[in-house]
Design a protein that fits this description.
Layout: H1 2-13, E1 18-22, H2 47-50, H3 53-58, H4 60-74, H5 81-91, E2 97-100, H6 106-110, E3 115-117, E4 120-127, E5 133-135, H7 136-144, E6 158-162, H8 172-181, E7 185-189, E8 207-212, E9 224-227, H9 230-243
Parallel strand pairs: 1-2, 1-7, 2-3, 7-8, 8-9
Antiparallel strand pairs: 4-5, 4-6
Helix pairs in contact: 1-9, 5-9
The chain binds nicotinamide-adenine-dinucleotide (NAD).
Nicotinamide-adenine-dinucleotide binds near residues 25, 103, 119 and 229.
Length: about 250
């Protein structure tokens, strides 16, 4: 791995604009299960039902009974080494911004700015009838108080501001296309690259590095692949960048 990390450090220093595209794998070491790994979320709930827009519209109680607890469990997590090193890389200009498929806000908690969230977030919820917004703690209070589904004063149902299957993508997706097209290097971190349209973004960047535990279908088409745990890869990268005086 050390040879690949050295190569990654060289690519980072030679790039005038680097962006990161992160997926659920970057947060597993913070205790949040990904979707597809053994023991992942898909072994616990059927996402096509629990996180489906159609089901939510006609039977919102299904989400509140089976999916909500899994989303809520993410909100107490803390950033890990990979999130923190990315934030420090951004602070010294080695990283321009982050495009994430995650809804856990861990990049922001680690101090990153310019974070584009392709699948929304869990900081708030919006009433589907009158568009009133409440923060996550207020939503939790309603749910814990037995208000299932959680409803607004107008009787509309509150939906978390995360993207469900069947939802439109937020405007951040448009911004992500621009960021990807104008980037010289994209680091794809902890993503199976099986979820569209996020998996179209890497081909818009000039050079791509994949950092992931398991192989992906795109491994053969990119400039560098590092198979390993994000925590270990980013600890090694941190050391390498520090030894070159590039990271404080
Ligand atoms: P995915 O579950 O399809 O793939 C995760 C990938 O991460 C796998 O290929 C796995 O090999 C790799 N991985 C797991 N642990 C790793 C580690 N420690 N280091 C390096 N790699 C590791 O995830 P995806 O591609 O992001 O797509 C799933 C969708 O699920 C996303 O759209 C995302 O919105 C959502 N999701 C988000 C969260 C979160 O916010 N933390 C959690 C679960 C699912």
């Amino acid at each position: 791995m050390y040879q690949e990390v050295k190569q990654l450090a060289d690519m980072l220093t030679g790039s005038s604009k680097t962006v990161a595209l992160t997926g659920a794998g970057i947060s597993t070491e913070s205790g949040i299960p990904d979707f597809r790994s053994p023991g992942g979320l898909w072994s616990k709930v059927d996402p096509d039902i629990a996180f489906s827009r159609d089901t939510f519209i006609y039977r919102p109680e299904v989400f509140y009974q089976s999916g909500f607890q899994h989303l809520h469990a993410m909100t107490g997590a803390e950033p890990n080494k990979a999130h923190r090193v990315l934030a420090r890389m951004q602070a010294v200009g080695l990283l321009h911004g982050i495009i994430t498929q995650n809804v856990d806000s861990l990049h922001q908690k680690a101090g990153s700015t310019n974070v584009l969230e392709l699948h929304g977030h869990l900081r708030s919820a919006t009433c589907m009838k009158c568009s009133n917004k409440i923060n996550w703690d207020q939503l939790v209070e309603l749910v814990l108080g037995g208000r299932i589904p959680a409803r607004c004063e107008c009787r509309g149902v509150y939906k978390p501001d995360a993207v469900f299957f069947g939802d439109e993508l937020p405007v951040d997706f448009e911004h992500s296309i621009k960021e990807s097209r104008s980037s010289e290097l994209m680091l794809v971190i902890g993503s199976s690259l099986e979820v569209a349209p996020a998996n179209f973004l890497p081909q818009m960047s000039r050079r791509v590095v994949i950092i992931n535990l398991d192989p992906t279908d795109m491994d053969g088409q990119v400039d560098l692949v590092i198979h390993g745990k994000c925590g270990e890869v980013f600890a090694a990268l941190e050391e390498k960048l520090q030894s070159r005086g590039l990271l404080r």
